[in-house]
Amino acid sequence: MGRLCFGVDLGGTAIKLGLFDSEDGLLESWEIVTRKEEGGSLILDDISVAILKKIEERKISKEEILGVGIGVPGPVTSDGYVNSCVNLGWGRFDVAKELGNKVGMPVKVGNDANVAALGEMWQGGAQGYQHVVMITLGTGVGGGIIINGKIWEGVNGAAGELGHMPVVYEETETCNCGKKGCLEQVASATGIVKVAKRLLNETDKPSSLRRVQYISAKEVFDAAKNGDELANDVLENMGEYMGIALANVASVVDPEIFVIGGGVSKAGKILIDLIQKYYKTKTLFSTKNTKFALARLGNDAGIYGAAKMVLS
Amino acid sequence: MGRLCFGVDLGGTAIKLGLFDSEDGLLESWEIVTRKEEGGSLILDDISVAILKKIEERKISKEEILGVGIGVPGPVTSDGYVNSCVNLGWGRFDVAKELGNKVGMPVKVGNDANVAALGEMWQGGAQGYQHVVMITLGTGVGGGIIINGKIWEGVNGAAGELGHMPVVYEETETCNCGKKGCLEQVASATGIVKVAKRLLNETDKPSSLRRVQYISAKEVFDAAKNGDELANDVLENMGEYMGIALANVASVVDPEIFVIGGGVSKAGKILIDLIQKYYKTKTLFSTKNTKFALARLGNDAGIYGAAKMVLS
What we know:
Number of strands of chain A: 12
Oligomer: homodimer
Strand order of the largest sheet of chain A: 3-2-1-4-7
Radius of gyration of chain A: 20 Å
Order of helices and strands of chain A: EEEHEEEHEHEEEHHHHEHEH
Structural class of chain A: alpha/beta
């Protein structure tokens, strides 16, 4: 048995915790509720209590524990400060130091999307690689940049904010970030649905989606698999912008592998094939063979990556 | 006096060499011709002879010398191999090892654009910063990515190949790289001239450029400064694509500072203002205040950066 550590994934609804062994990996995972009341001031206490209870329950001696890693839903600047997690009510403060004082162990902190990328590098879709870009296609689009096996958070904590690459020049609607034409507006689950609805409204093309009451990204993928032309147009549009965005990423950091995660990635190989088709036409010849993989850890990527911050 | 090292900038026409002191900086620089005959096989010998002669001439003892840094005009992969410098006739080989054997000292090698970025970080426009993106607007467009004070070359040596970001969707001509719509096609000196000629041919707009026999990027900037509307359109077009490209870069690596170099950067503050105007509208709010600076070392950036690889 190796040494132990805790990985914490702090979300807006639930806090996921994992106890990890440096050799055997995940030993146990559990969840507690995120109490957002009182400006989010109860959260670190709750995490601390959950960890200390687990230590007592398992009769672990403190010498066995390397520390705690935590992924938070907000930017972490290069000085280690967490810079306002709007969903939690948090402003700017040193989460690692405050949680460290409560648990009496070293704590490392990272942005949740970046931490998930590290998790996928350690035990997921990018296992065996050291230079990884993860892009997460969920309600929004996020990402994480791993260079030499380590998260690069960026000076303002904005490295890997791939959802806000300005790639859709003709976009007329405003993104949640306040800009127009972000990748997220066409490549997130929400964006896919929005583009589908737009095409359904603006064209007379027959489509099985016209009979669907609540259109989701999954419905669009399913329709495309069944040969629906309009659904296919929506996905080709998404694939082309993803190809452009990842070609841009390759020209900046030239990684070994792109890992595609988030709810949309449940579409599987069809999604990878779609993105890769456009990527290869958009990227410089020397980066055409960059690998693509699906994320494998799902919602556990956060606790794996958080633990890996402590172990590496 | 500190310790000494050599910085070498290997170009297609000339090889620039510098002798540096870790405390006092550049002590002396000189040039030799690049002999490209015999498949480029004479080049490393010539560099070695130049360095050993200088050591003898200055009566330097080998113990005083930390090593040699060299920037080469081709990709350097993450394993340290130089991967075909087409201009020199070189294939793939371990330049650091071969030159090291000849001079009998440690050698570090980097791609010339990346090495120039490191030079600007050490003693140029990005002095005092650790996380730097340099973009060089010359005949082509190149770049370099510095994270934590070190060059990130990329897995295929393509990190910082910012000239080939696919940003110009309506471009119909083919770039030197074989793709269509690269940043280089609108933002290099060549690209600026090409867009100016296109506008002169395709519109009837009056312009002082219609009276110029040989249009250069400098003529376009000069005309714009004098209020020429067509020249101004060319530069606004360039500024918008540069703003988009650097916003993309910020969403990937989120640096402290962008340094703009190359011949086009001689236009000065007008260029920075132009790019920054568009950058601020395209980038995520948290990266709006990323600094911009002009490169300061000109053609010396290469030898400075090469020396810095050895010193850091």
